[in-house]
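Notes to self after the Tuesday call (sharing in case useful).
The group wants a holo model before anyone commits to mutagenesis around the pocket. I volunteered. Ligand is guanosine-5'-triphosphate. Logging inputs and output together so the record is complete.
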Amino acid sequence: MYIQWYPGHMTKAMRMMQDSLKAADCVIYVLDARVINSSRNPAFDKMVEGMPILYVFNKCDMVERADVAAWEKYYRDRGEICVSVNSTSPKFRAEVISKLLLLNKAVIDKYASKGVNKTVRALVAGVPNTGKSTLINCLCGSKRAVTGNRPGVTRGKQWVKLAANIELLDTPGTLPPAFEDGERAVRLAMIGSIKEEVLDIAELGLETVKFFAERNYKPFAERYWLEDLSGEPLEIMDKIAKKRGYLLNKDNYDYERTARAILDDLRKLRLGKVMLDKAEEL
Ligand SMILES: Nc1nc2c(ncn2[C@@H]2O[C@H](COP(=O)(O)OP(=O)(O)OP(=O)(O)O)[C@@H](O)[C@H]2O)c(=O)[nH]1
Ligand SMILES: [Mg+2]
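Result:
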């Protein structure tokens, strides 16, 4: 599936990011727990090389604990600092703040030795809709940043004071200027990080069916009363449309409606807690 969005818009966003990074001591890189690999942006990775980075696996309430634990191990084995959170709950606040301070310990201590109380400035980044603004609100304990369940909510930039010695910068979600890997784009589209306007929903639905069929994922078959997931993805899509009665007319199935139903089920966890990128598949 070929997905094309506005590269110009993203290039501008990345330029803005580069600018903001000059004022930042470190980065909070928010990854969606369902797509920990696909929600990394290779262009951004390059930009922040060498900076202290706290990886936040957000929306961990949407995946199984064991699946996200495998990713935590993968990151820790590589010497990275990461934390799994659900930003809609205040209970992860203290852990994120303590990891952030740990990440910046060297610089804080260096300033402290000169009697200076260093303010740590963290730039919060990630692909659209990963929960960057929600995380900031969670950390601040109040609604400081605008949030919403669609990509492209945050537009401008603003430093927010979290504590006497920590400031956070919310940034608009950014996608790589071009996708070298179609699979990455499809997975981001599946979870809702890519604007609908640039997507062929029926085709995305078909890719979603293919994803589950390739894994012979039982809860998917059960949800749509399918005996099995054999056959071509289009045949499976036909069966789902037929069972649901999604018809355009008596001879044609309504693929768009079928696709929307499948995507909605996936995003609302009616297919279970699905981790799309598994650590062991890397
Ligand atoms: N289940 C769940 N939902 C979350 C979590 N964090 C954020 N959300 C929801 O995800 C949606 C997107 O959150 P935002 O904070 O606006 O995301 P963002 O990364 O700032 O998005 P952009 O500004 O568009 O790039 C909202 O509907 C949030 O309520 C989480 O940990 N778990
Ligand atoms: Mg935002």
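Two things stood out.
The first strand starts at residue 26 and ends at 32.
The radius of gyration is 21 Å.
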